[in-house]
Amino acid sequence: MNPEFVPPRGFVPRDAAVLIPIVERSNATVLMTRRTMQLRKHAGQIAFPGGKIDPTDSSAAAAALREAQEEIGLDPRLVEPIGRLDPYIAGTGYRIIAIVARVAPEYRLVLNPDEVDAAFEVPLSFLMSPQNHQTITREFDGVRHLLYEMPYDEHHIWGVTAGIVRGLYERLYQ
Question: How far apart are CA 60 and CA 65, in angstroms?
Fold first, then answer.
């Protein structure tokens, strides 16, 4: 989205992984979270479960599954990873690997109140409709960036999360 963005000299991205949990319903949905307002970074934002890849994680998929279990209590036995997207380089210095996975609809969540204050499902058809992919500009550290946003009900999906959704759309439809 921002081809003029040049990482600072000596920039070394930190690896992270997120799970794109697609719930197997008659009309598939994507499970998303809203981060708590008490967090130092990205408070209140809509996100996929995920985080840093730890040295003990055997893969990006293992990290995404571990983080989903820690953040929202998603039982990994109900999750089947089916693919991954190209890395998403975030302006925050993370190289994010998005793991696409099927999730059995009978899942039950236990939210970690230190990280997540809500979990909800968004129809996959909504997220995969390009007319719902709006662009906005935001300024970070004096630099204007073009970002995607996808307002859904009372949820404001934007930034990295919307960029990853757009990456999934482009992988599937372009």
Answer: 9
